[in-house]
Amino acid sequence: MKIACPSSPILTVVSSSGSLDSKISGSLGSRILPATQRSSPSDNLILHRTMSSNYLRHVESMSQLPSGTGKISQLNAVVLGESLASEENDLIFPSKEFSGQALVSSPQQYMEMHKRSMDDPAGFWSDIASEFYWKQKWGDQVFSENLDVRKGPISIEWFKGGITNICYNCLDKNVEAGFGDKTAIYWEGNELGVDASLTYSELLQQVCQLANYLKDNGVKKGDAVVIYLPMLMELPIALLACARIGAVHSVVFAGFSADSLAQRIIDCKPKVILTCNAVKRGPKTINLKAIVDAALDQSSKDGVSVGICLTYDNSLATTRENTKWQNGRDVWWQDVISQYPTSCEVEWVDAEDPLFLLYTSGSTGKPKGVLHTTGGYMIYTATTFKYAFDYKSTDVYWCTADCGWITGHSYVTYGPMLNGATVVVFEGAPNYPDSGRCWDIVDKYKVSIFYTAPTLVRSLMRDDDKYVTRHSRKSLRVLGSVGEPINPSAWRWFFNVVGDSRCPISDTWWQTETGGFMITPLPGAWPQKPGSATFPFFGVQPVIVDEKGIEIEGECSGYLCVKGSWPGAFRTLFGDHERYETTYFKPFAGYYFSGDGCRRDKDGYYWLTGRVDDVINVSGHRIGTAEVESALVLHPQCAEAAVVGIEHEVKGQGIYAFVTLLEGVPYSEELRKSLVLMVRNQIGAFAAPDRIHWAPGLPKTRSGKIMRRILRKIASRQLEELGDISTLADPSVVDQLIALADV
């Protein structure tokens, strides 16, 4: 199927300026002081000047905050490398040495750049875009947008008319600049001692071979290619090969079930699917080809046939003899790709031509095909990577995310390679063969930037610190967090134990839909607060609104929205622009609605509080409650199900399912396991409910609406906060559910 962006009238051009008016009158001390010994702002300023002329020089330039929320309060001050972060209200300051070499080295520099990006977005982003290769430059109008459904169809365009290619900018541009011999990828296998690497020249050659194969088999500009691969080097190779020829890649996380994969195949109708026969994840072997076979059988029954299944022979996981095969459709990767030329002409595309589809969970149960285009996404991912991680050409960067998620697109492949970075790609499990594996890899490759999820941090902090401290980790200089808000205790462990109290943490907030970071610390600029995403990135104007869509100023909590567009924004939901508008732009007209709750503290720092819709964030994976409910009711003994999210020590959020069985079916542990297995088979292991709560009935209004608010309170055992239940059709259901809470 050919994939193109919707054409809709461009109704307005907007360039909004941010509020930069709040003042800070004093400074903070450079040591942690007991509360009884803390001095006034003026005393702190004297202390700062007498103790050191450099420790907190940032504070003297911190004359304004970007969110207009008042003075920095009297908080503890910690300088990187000097003291442990111990309190949730600590301010963690970058060290003199770190800030001295940082790309953005002070609040003043950040504010000047952010202000320009708000006042002159066209000029700001044009200057950055000019650093990349364009076959033809964009027109006079750098961007056009309408984010207000009251004014017509939602439309966002950046660099329209500009002709470029993201693969060329990732690979050819770096090789031509003399970096062909620089390592592009260090690949670490599941088993210890299994590794490989590719230079930028070698990577370009392998990308061209795959691109030539795809072209030779009829894949053209705009055609969809589904990729169902684990974290082999062939996964980023596949992304880049598709981009080189203008094909639209749709990566499906190789943990999704056959049903989920089939659903995505049916939606985008690919010409080719790329996979491998099996993968080892820790001690477990996963037969991916069998999952693909089942998905292709299912999609074929629904009228969507895929002509080629190109299969990588992963001999470390299984053998060819043990791989089921369909002649005429299935092709071994190694048998054909090496025969193709190592150079391939670039398909030059418009900045607004589609780059990829990535399906994300929605509250309706049907995954949403998020569509990103080429030019704006390229500029935005490259820029966010560069500044949020304070990237240097000597850095070795490792993001633990899978390319099946947006993080792997933006910050394993495109963002790093657009900057010519050396990237670590890890196939295995982070706790295999033990919980020190991550730090083995950090020391082995001298990783300097380490970007991971709070789920992994919480998991590793449950084990003995010796798994961390037995390794050097001296190469680390920047840490990062992605996928969900990181709780302050996990932040402090990450900072104190992993980073030896010397590595700033880029605690990033963004989404599949945003393409890149939206709110994030810049390591050398601002003092950090454990658990806060800090301040907006360049070109981003976050606002917090109340239930009526009215912007709230100063210290507040509410719904997080974004005013105005940014280059990395997604352009539509594939085949469903109406759903795109309804989900993201109709809740609060004139704004992009993130679906997240947010708190802004008295110092202007942003704190993400989680989803406000019916999507659960499990280990950074967004899972629609409707998807899980749909899977549960497929069980022959399940009459009805309702799913809510609950706090989980390791995963951030867990899945809590209330299940009503058919009349006469008894509760049993075997049935509980069977229900969980049904979800695993329908969606994937990551969506399996953490708890099945038997429910004789569900709390519903007289109109039949399930009162999920009550279910959340029961699931979290906040029984004193149930509130008014008199409006329920049958209030006695609540007492029945409470009685069965521990059954």
Explain what you see:
This protein is of the alpha/beta class and 743 residues long. Helices cover 30% and strands 21% of the residues. The chain is built from 22 helices and 34 strands. The strands form 10 sheets. An 8-stranded mixed sheet has the order 16-15-12-10-11-18-19-27, with helices on both faces. Strands 9-8-21-20-22-23-24 form a 7-stranded mixed sheet, with helices on both faces. Helix 6 packs antiparallel against helix 7 (200-216).
Write the layout of secondary structure elements.
Blueprint: E1 22-23, H1 41-51, H2 57-61, E2 64-65, E3 77-79, E4 91-93, H3 96-101, H4 107-119, H5 121-129, E5 143-146, E6 155-158, E7 163-164, H6 166-179, E8 183-188, E9 195-199, H7 200-216, E10 224-228, H8 234-244, E11 248-251, H9 258-268, E12 272-276, E13 279-281, E14 284-286, H10 288-301, E15 308-312, E16 330-332, H11 333-336, E17 349-350, E18 354-360, E19 368-373, H12 375-388, E20 396-399, H13 406-418, E21 422-426, H14 437-445, E22 449-452, H15 454-461, H16 466-469, E23 478-481, H17 488-498, E24 505-507, E25 542-545, E26 556-562, E27 572-573, H18 577-584, E28 592-600, E29 606-611, E30 615-618, E31 621-624, H19 625-633, E32 638-648, E33 652-661, H20 669-682, E34 691-694, H21 708-715, H22 732-739
Helix pairs in contact: 4-5, 6-7, 6-8, 6-13, 7-8, 9-10, 12-13, 15-17
How much of the sequence lies in strands comes to 15-25%
Cα radius of gyration in angstroms: 26 Å
Structural class: alpha/beta
Which overall shape is indicated by the principal axes computed on the Cα atoms?
Answer: globular
The count of helical stretches stands at: 22
